[in-house]
């Protein structure tokens, strides 16, 4: 795999697949620019070499054609400020106008293309569409780890049209950090798994059982474990058909000598709302009309103690409904524990994208852990041992 540092972009026009799929509010303002900031070193290296950049990305999930709310034009101003360069914008990602603007680029200039997913051919991995995109650059740089698990036109199929294919800094860092956790972890190694469903995390949990010393399970999926063990979970999230699997995973962990930590108490609510009435009850003792929305104080204490003794920490998925401030206490407390272990005990901490990345960044902890992944689904699939099309395309 050719890395960015091993390539001189002088006089070259780099076509870069970036992941600018950032959240926007109803005024089209970026509410989390982590993914954009992550790509700046790649763009700056190319510009410093004396190259120019054509940036391509998707944004959101447009349904069959252009939609103003998903236009990448909303990112031009913020990106220009970040780069200190007046970013040009092409109102299409293929066609005569986009081609003319790309051809006219001078060294040090940047062009942002319109949303790739305004064409259904992008997600279909259409070869003809990929070829049209390829004409916009001399060298292809893939820096979009967050979409590397998709065999889309811009993330993988396009590679066949380039002699020079280069791995960007974000992609390289994601792969290096994932490998460090999977193959070179200092012990004790603790994985913290949260989120709504066991079904989303089965493969990664099974893979981790061969790697970790401790497995902490929180979030919505913990209620399926509680129910499977005979507890009452009220209206809490439940994957009824995964109860046997939950018990099976606990048994597998036991045979492999992995210590599993499940919540011992929960913060419950009488409605799915931030202002709902709430109380703390032991796990498995949730009244029928209530639901669990966060881990309780005793669980926070136990989980934090395990984290404090860890030398490697992988965290994917929140401990509760962290979007509601009243039920974000558990998630924030675990973030605090991970930061302390990183800063005070020199632990290596990898935050696994998606909601956990948002939770850590929202708490202001993004630069106080070892690495925050920009690719939730891609990181999970990589750690599950799957081949990612966007990575394979760089080989």
UniProtKB/TrEMBL annotation:
Domain of life from the UniProt record: Bacteria
Localization per Swiss-Prot or TrEMBL: Cytoplasm
Principal cellular location given in the protein's record: cytoplasm
Top class in the EC scheme: transferase
Keyword Cytoplasm belongs to the record: yes
GO molecular function, one term: kinase activity
Annotated binding of substrate, by residue: 19-21, 35, 58-61, 117, 150
Residues bound to ATP: 201, 292, 323, 353-356
Catalytic reactions on record: (2R)-3-phosphoglycerate + ATP = (2R)-3-phospho-glyceroyl phosphate + ADP
Keywords, sorted A to Z: ATP-binding, Cytoplasm, Glycolysis, Kinase, Nucleotide-binding, Transferase
Recorded metabolic or biological pathway in which this protein acts: Carbohydrate degradation; glycolysis; pyruvate from D-glyceraldehyde 3-phosphate: step 2/5
Subunit structure, interactors included: Monomer.
Similarity-based family: Belongs to the phosphoglycerate kinase family.
PANTHER family (alphabetical): PHOSPHOGLYCERATE KINASE, PHOSPHOGLYCERATE KINASE 1, CHLOROPLASTIC-RELATED
The name this protein goes by in its record: Phosphoglycerate kinase
Organism this protein belongs to: Larkinella bovis
């Amino acid at each position: 795999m050719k890395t960015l540092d091993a390539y001189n972009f002088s006089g070259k026009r780099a076509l870069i697949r970036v992941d600018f799929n950032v959240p926007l509010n109803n005024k089209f303002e970026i509410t989390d620019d982590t993914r954009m900031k992550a790509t700046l070193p790649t763009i700056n290296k190319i510009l410093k070499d004396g190259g120019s950049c054509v940036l391509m990305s998707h944004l959101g999930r447009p349904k069959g054609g252009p939609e103003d709310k998903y236009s990448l034009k909303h990112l031009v101003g913020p990106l220009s400020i970040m780069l200190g360069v007046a970013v040009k914008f092409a109102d299409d990602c293929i066609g005569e106008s986009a081609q003319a603007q790309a051809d006219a680029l001078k060294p040090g200039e940047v062009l942002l293309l319109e949303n790739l997913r305004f064409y259904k051919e992008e997600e279909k991995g259409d070869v003809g569409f990929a070829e049209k995109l390829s004409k916009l650059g001399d060298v292809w740089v893939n820096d979009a780890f967050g979409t590397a698990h998709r065999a889309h036109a811009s993330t993988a199929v396009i590679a066949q049209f380039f002699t020079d294919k280069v791995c960007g800094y974000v992609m390289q860092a994601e792969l290096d950090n994932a490998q460090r956790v999977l193959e070179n972890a200092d012990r004790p190694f603790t994985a913290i798994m949260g989120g709504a469903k066991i079904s989303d995390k089965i493969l990664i949990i099974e893979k981790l059982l061969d790697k970790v010393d401790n497995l902490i399970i929180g979030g919505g999926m913990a209620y399926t474990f509680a129910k499977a063990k005979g507890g009452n979970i009220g209206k809490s999230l439940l994957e009824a058909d995964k109860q046997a699997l939950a018990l099976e995973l606990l048994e597998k962990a036991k045979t492999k000598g992995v210590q599993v930590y499940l919540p011992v108490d929960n913060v419950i609510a009488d409605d799915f709302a931030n202002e709902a009435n709430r109380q703390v009850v032991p796990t498995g003792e949730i009244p029928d009309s209530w639901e669990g929305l966060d881990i309780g104080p005793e669980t926070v204490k136990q989980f934090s103690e395990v984290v404090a003794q860890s030398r490697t920490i992988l965290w994917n998925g929140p401990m509760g409904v962290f979007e509601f401030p009243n039920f974000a206490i558990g998630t924030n407390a675990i973030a605090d524990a991970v930061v302390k272990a990183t800063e005070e005990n020199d632990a290596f901490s990898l935050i696994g994208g998606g909601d956990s990345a948002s939770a850590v960044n929202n708490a202001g902890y993004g630069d106080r852990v070892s690495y925050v992944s920009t690719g939730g689904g891609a990181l999970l699939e990589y750690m599950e041992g799957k081949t990612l099309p966007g990575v394979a395309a760089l080989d």
